[in-house]
Specification:
Layout (H helix, E strand, L loop, with lengths): L11 E4 L9 H13 L7 H6 L5 H12 L5 H14 L10 H8 L5 E4 L4 H10 L8 E3 L12 H10 L6 E5 L2 H9 L3 E4 L7
Parallel strand pairs: 1-2, 1-4, 2-3, 4-5
Length: 196
């Protein structure tokens, strides 16, 4: 196993999706850049990664505010998703995380807690032939307060019927780690692409 797990007996694993299960963050950034270029907006790499775990709506709203733009949220979100899904065939799973999924599948229940839409999460997991591994998908439209709020992770634990302190979270972003910790869950920090 490439990623060491914290000590303890865990009854469920909860995974972020993008950058944690799927090695998709570079593709997401390229999709953002292409969609935003159509509106004259920018999204530098350091800001993109700093905002990892935020919802698409929040990102567009803040980019509009920061850059003095009025990009249509629904139109831009749909265009970004279209560009991203076109890149799915070139995206693989994150090594180390995939090993844990393969080693523990069937031993503990798995759930996904993502700031991405259900459409995006389902497409990504389907492209990797992993969708059937997850009993629960908690996506952007399933909770009101995004990471770092613990609501998404607490929802995932509740749907799996496991106490939060018995869940282990796999996360790649600071916001996601903060959400897991706020939920009272142990967490494995998944390295960013350039740290692996």
């Amino acid at each position: 196993m490439l990623l060491p797990l914290p000590a303890g007996e865990f009854e469920a694993y909860l995974f972020d999706c993008d950058g944690t299960i799927t090695d998709s963050m570079p593709a997401h950034h390229r999709a953002w850049l292409a969609a935003l270029a159509e509106h004259g907006a920018e999204f530098p790499r350091d800001l993109f990664y700093a905002w990892g775990g935020r919802t698409v709506v929040d990102v567009i709203t803040d980019l509009n505010r920061m850059q003095g733009l009025d990009m249509p949220v629904d139109v831009l979100a749909a265009r970004r998703e279209e560009l991203f899904q076109a890149m799915l065939p070139e995206i693989g799973a994150v090594p180390g995380v995939l090993e844990h999924i393969e080693a523990s599948f069937g031993k503990v229940p798995f759930g996904v807690v993502s700031g991405s839409t259900r459409e995006s999460v389902t497409a990504s997991l389907t492209a990797l032939d992993l969708l059937d591994r997850f009993e629960v998908l908690v996506c952007a439209e399933d909770y009101a307060r995004p990471k770092p709020d613990p609501e998404g992770y607490l929802t995932g634990a509740r749907l799996l019927g496991v106490a939060p302190e018995r869940c282990l979270v796999f996360e790649d972003t600071e916001l996601g780690v903060a959400a897991a910790e706020a939920a009272g869950m142990a967490c494995v920090r998944v390295p960013a692409p350039w740290e692996r």
